[in-house]
Amino acid sequence: MISKISISRFNVYQVGSLVIALAFIAGVILMVGGSPLAVVTSMGAGAFGTTDQFARVVATLAPLLLCASGLLFTFTAGLYNLGIEGQIVLGGIAAMIPIRLFQEILPAPLVIAMAITAGALGGMLWGLLAGILKVYGRIDEIFAGVGLNFMADGLALYLIFGPWKKPGVASMSGTEQFSEAIWLPTFGKTEASPVALVIALSLLLLTFIVLRGTYFGLKLKAVGHSLRASYILGIPALSQLLSAFALCGAFAGIAGSLQVLAVFHRLIPSISSNLGYLALLIAMLSGSQAWLLLPIAFFFSALNIGSLQLPLSLDLESSLSGVIQGTLVLFALLGRGFSELNKSDLNKTVNH
Amino acid sequence: MRVELHNICKRFGSVQANDDVSLIVEAGSIHGLLGENGAGKSTLVKILSGFMTREQGSLQLEGHEVNIKTPADAMQRGIGMLHQDPLDFPPLSVLDNFMVGQPGGLFTHRREVIRKFRQLAVQFNFALDIRQPVGDLTVGERQQVEILRLLSLGVKTLILDEPTTGISASQKDALFAAARLLASQGKSVIFVSHKLEDVDELCDRVTVMRQGRVVGNLPIPAPDAQLIELIFGEELAPPAKNSTCQEGVALALENITIRSDRLNIQVNHLTVQQGEVIGLAGLEGSGQQLLLQLCAGLLQSSTGCLQIKGIDLTRQPYQTYLNTGVGYSPADRLREGLVNGLSIHEHVALKTSSQGWFVDWKGTLKQAQTAISLFNIRGKPDTKVERLSGGNQQRTQLALLPVPLNLLLMEHPTRGLDIGSTLWVWQQLLARCEGGTTILFTSSDLDEIMQYSDRVIVFSGGELSEPIDAKKLTVERLGQMIGGKLHYDSPVMAKRSTKHPAKR
Prior knowledge:
The complex is a heterodimer of chains A (352) and B (504).
Chain A (H helix, E strand, L loop, with lengths): L1 H30 L4 H13 L2 H26 L7 H19 L5 H28 L5 H21 L32 H20 L1 H11 L1 H6 L4 H28 L10 H12 L3 H18 L2 H4 L6 H32 L1
Chain B lengths: L2 E10 L2 E11 L4 E5 L6 H8 L7 E6 L2 E3 L4 H6 L2 E4 L11 H6 L10 H15 L14 H14 L4 E5 L7 H16 L3 E6 L2 H7 L2 E6 L2 E7 L4 H9 L13 E14 L4 E11 L2 E5 L6 H9 L8 E4 L2 E2 L5 H6 L2 E4 L3 H5 L6 H8 L9 H14 L15 H11 L6 E5 L7 H16 L3 E5 L3 H7 L2 E6 L2 E2 L3 E2 L5 H8 L8 H7 L7
Parallel strand pairs in B: 3-8, 3-9, 6-7, 7-8, 13-18, 13-19, 16-17, 17-18
Antiparallel strand pairs in B: 1-2, 1-4, 4-5, 9-10, 11-12, 11-14, 14-15, 19-20, 19-21
Helix pairs in contact in B: 4-5, 8-17, 12-13
C-alpha cells in the first residue's frame, strides 16, 4: 500500500517537473525571439530529415551510450566521475598506439581489435588514477577527475604537436589520417558505424545484467548508499570503489577509441567533444536505471544533431540544445529531490 | 551573575527531556548539575545558552525576566557555554579562533587583540601559542582557547558541559583554578557533569537531575551515598540469569592500548569464557564502544595481543575477524548496522555473496521471508530498512548476524524496544550463548546489565574496572564506579580523594 502511494507520488513529481521544464524552455525560446513550435519542427527536421543526418544521430549515440553505461557503475557506487572526459581522451590516445605501430604490418581487423582493447586499457588506467586519488589520497573524485581531464588534454596536445605531428607542419587539425583499411566500416558513406553501435548496445546490456543480477552490482549499490555500513557488513568497500572507476574508465576509453576509429580517423585535440559531460547528464536523468539510457541517449543525441540546423533555418544559436538538455536534467533532479523530501515528511507523520 | 530558570519544559517527540525544571545559580558560585546520560542536563543548559528554545517556563538574570532565543542573545546577556565537543574552527589559528565573534567594524585590530589575549592567558595561567592551528591542540587546550574567547566577550555566567572528559590531570587543575577565579570575581559557573569526584572537588552546590526532572538540590560536601541514590533512583533488579559459561576461552586480551581522539584505553589482561555474557557498563563515551570495536577488528591496538578461540588476530584485517566468527552489531543502525537505502531482501542477498557471480533473487526472497517471520519483523522483503521502526531495524540486524558465531559484540541490543521485544531479543541472544557464543554488550540500562550479564566491566573516562561477578554487584557499588570511583574500596583511591583537603 505504502509503496503504491510512493510510486504514484514519484510519478507526479517526475511528470510535473517535465512539464515545468518544457514550459521554461519555451519561455527561453520566446525570450530570444523564436517560436517554440518552429524550433521543435526545425530540430526534428535537423535530426531526422535526411539519412545522413539520422546517421549522425546514430554515430553520436554509440559513444554516449558507452559513457553513460560506464557512469552508471560510478553513480551506483555513489561517485561523481567528472573525469570521464579525460578517460575518453586517454582511450583515444591509447588506441593510436597499436594503430601507429602495426597498421602496415598486421591485418586490419586485428589492428582494430587491438586499438579498441588499448583504448579500454587507457581509459581504465585514467579511471583508476582518479580512484586511487580518491581512495588513498582523499581527494574528492570531482576535483581529481577535472584535474586529470586537463592532464589528458595536455597529453593529447603534446602528442599532436610533438612526437606524433604530421610530416611537415603540426596543426590543431590533429595527426595524419591513418590508412582507410583501419577505418571502422560505416553505413554507406555516413559516419554511423554498425560495429560501434553493436559494441555500445552489448555493453549497455552487460551493464544492465551486472547491475541487476550480480553480487558485484548489489555490493556496488550497498557501497554507494553507505560506505561505512558496507564495510562493517564485510563488503570490501574500497576495492568496489576502485572497480567502479576502472569499469567506467574502460567504457569511456572504448568510446574514445571508437571516435578515433570510426569518426575522425586520427587523433585530434578535443576527441571527446564534450560527449562525456553529456553522458553525465544522461546517466543522472536515468536515475541509475540502465534500460532508460537508450531512449534518453537517443533523444539527447537527436537534440545535439538537430540543433545544428537552428542557425540556418531559424537564425537561432545551436547552443540552444545545451540549454534544453541542462534544463531537463536540472528540473528532473529537482523533481526527484522534492519527491524524496515529501516522502520523508510523509514518513515522519506516519511514525508519530 | 545570578541565574534563575523557572518551570522549564522541553519535549523531543515522545521524550520529555525537561519536565518542570527549576534551577537557581547564585552570583559568585560554582553550581554542579549532576545526572546520568539522558537525564536532561544538556537540554537545560542548551536552553539557557540559546541553542534550544524552551516550550514553557521563564528565565531571569539578576532578577530581570529575559527571553533568550539564539546563542547570540545569550552571549549579549553574558551567558557563554563551553561545549562538550569543542565548537571551534580546527584549521584556524588560536588567535583567529579567539577573534571570531569579537565586536568591531570592517577591519580587525590584531595587535590590540593579541595584547588582550596575552593578558587573559597570563591571568588564568594558560600557555597557548597564538599562531598554532586549533586542530593541532589537545581537547584541554582547545577548551582554554574557548574559555578565553568567551571571557573576552564579557561572559558573566559560564556553562561548562562535561569539561573533564578527555583532558589531562594538569589541564583539569588549570580548568578548576580558572573556574574558582571566575567565581571569586562574582561570576557564576554552571558545571555539568556525571562525575561525583569532580563535583565534590569543585562545586559549592549541586542539583541532581533524573529523567528530565530535578530530584535533589544540596550543598557540597554531600554524602556520596545520598547523591548516588538521587542519580540512579530505585533499587536495581537482581541478576536473574543462570550462567551460560562453558569450558574454553573465547577471547583473550593482553596488554592492549586503544588510542582515540578523546580517550586512551589500556586493558592489561582480560579473558572471557565461551558462552559467557559480559556487560559493559558506564556512561556513554567512556570507552565501551572502543573496546567492542577493537574486538570486532574495526580498531587496532598499538600494543599487546588479541586472541579469539586461541587464534592470534592481532593487527589482522577486519575480514579475518569476520571469517573467525566475530559479529558486530552497532548502535547506529542506519549508519553502521544496515545500509540505508537497501531493502531487507537486498540485505539478505548480500549475506549470500560468497555463492558465485549471480544473485539468486528467488531463493534469497524465500530466505528474506523466512527471516521476516522468524524474527517477527514488521516489514516486507522489499521494504527499505530506513522505513522500518527502530525495533524492527534491530530485529533485521539480528536476523543478518551469521550463524554460528564465536563472539558477538553488541551496542545497546535493546535500545528503543518495548518490553516484549526486549525479552524476545534476549531469548535469542541467550539461546546463542547456550550454543557457545560469547557476548559482550554495552547498555545504558543498568537493569539490563544486571539481568543478563555473567560478569560486568565498568568504564569511566577511558578507565575500566576488573570484571566483577554480576551476583556480587550492588546498585551502590555500580553507581559509584560509573561516577568515576572505579576502585572505590581500594586504599589507593582513598588517598586520591583527599588530595584537595582545602575544599572539604
